[in-house]
Every structure is written in C-alpha cells, then in structure tokens.
Specification:
Oligomer: single chain
Number of strands: 4
Distance between the termini: 41 Å
Strand content: 15-25%
Number of helices: 4
CATH topology: Sufe protein. Chain: A
CATH class: Alpha Beta
Strand order of the largest sheet: 1-2-3-4
C-alpha cells in the first residue's frame, strides 16, 4: 500500500490518500479529508483501472473528472497527489516528494 499526506495550503485542509494495488490493472483509492469536496471523490475512485482512465491525458483522467464534479478550487493539489500515489503503488514512478515553494521579494 502507498500512503501520502497532503497539506493543501491556504484552505487549511489536509488529506491522507491510501492506494492499494488489487491486481495487475486495478487499484483501490481511499481519501481521508475534512474537506467535503475532496471526500466526495471517494465513491468515484474506490476502484480504478489505472491503465485506462488514470495513466492518460489530464482531460481523460478519472481522478480529474471526479475533481471537476466535486472540487470548486482548480488549483487544489490533492488530485495530482492521488495520481502520484497511484503511480508509485503500481511501480511506474518513484516515491519522491513534490514541493511548491513560493518566493516572495
């Protein structure tokens, strides 16, 4: 199982994402967050074929399609984190932290 924690930023919400590989093509995704919009994605992502609808262009991604239905903030980093966790769980990416760092004058 791959588990990631995301501090989403100014909204103050955090999310814990757990991804478990079921078989060669299928993963289970579970998101724990106090953000109702992010939590509403759970039924859509409960079980996914990661080769179709996950590892694809953004406009076809089941993760981003779910986010488009439930999440009002387009810059939310959690959908990207879900995809990164899936990639790590299925072995097509390394577990490497992602950082957005703001530099202010």
């Amino acid at each position: 199982m791959t588990k990631v924690t995301v501090d989403a930023g100014a909204c103050g919400y955090r999310a814990t994402i757990e991804v478990e590989k079921v078989d060669r093509h299928t993963v289970r995704v579970r998101i724990d967050s106090a953000c109702e919009e992010i939590a509403a994605m759970n039924p859509d992502l409960a079980e996914l074929n990661w080769r179709r609808g996950v590892f694809c262009k953004i406009a076809a991604s089941r993760v981003y399609l779910s986010a488009a239905q439930h999440v009002k903030h387009a810059a939310c980093p959690i959908p990207s984190a879900i995809l990164k966790a899936i990639e790590v769980e299925v072995g097509i990416a390394l577990a490497k932290d992602v950082t957005i760092h703001f530099e202010r004058p």
